[in-house]
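Input chain follows. Return structure tokens only.
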Amino acid sequence: MLVDRDRLHIAIQKSGRLSELSRGLLRDAGLRIQNGKNELTARIENFAADLMFVRDDDIPTFVSDGACEFGIVGGNVLEEFALGTEERGFEILAKLGFGRCSLRIAAPEATAYEGPASLAGARIATSYPNIVRRFLADNGVDATVVTMNGAVELAPRLQIAGFICDLVSTGATLEANGLRPVETVLESEAVLIRTARPLNQIHADLGDRLLSRIEGVLATRDSKYIMMNAPGEALKRITEILPGAEAPTIIPLHGRAGHFAVHAVCQESVFWETLQKLKEAGASAILVVPIEKMML
């Protein structure tokens, strides 16, 4: 497929959980993706952009080299890439709130661990050698990093290494292999990145529109529109209670002197405890509704 330079190019993981979540984010942003799950590319029908399906560890290269203007990639993959190159060819635009995991050092159950000093002289197997070496350097520890591309959990059993450093979400895989996490090296989630290379005007305009849509999706995930009635003397306290809200809209109620309708966008979750506090502060007829779309 020839690359159309009048269209934006977005690199995402070809398969796996991060691929599905990335597609979901783009669909929530109103992009209609043609069926291309088993292909290398897919066209977006209602936006001048194409998706490129690649290996996760190739996404930073595609974006840094300018082959793709945008990419969605795990922060762990991006950090490993950045530590292995002299030129930072990308810019992080947004943390996306999905694909969360931890890069953690793990040890066999019988191995004592009392902090990073316990790693001195040890062998650590990992698929993230650059990140692990930085962790060791930051803690002044001299240890050997053994690079593996998979099956890292088997390293202690095969006596390749005494410790491992790998991604952990639930910890079930570690437990199944007789390992326990002992140190967190990096907290990670998916991020949206843009090439640091200069964009032509077409790509710059398309990129701004894409980013605006994605920011709108992210802003609405936990956001709620909250409405209530309240007497004038309660407005100050109610405004203080509203979670993550900017200045609310306050409208006088017809036929009720000194009473107002309060409308606000809350950019944090609104819990039952919050509603109880609002009621105790003097609010009544409280209504909380989800926000489908929001343009920032």
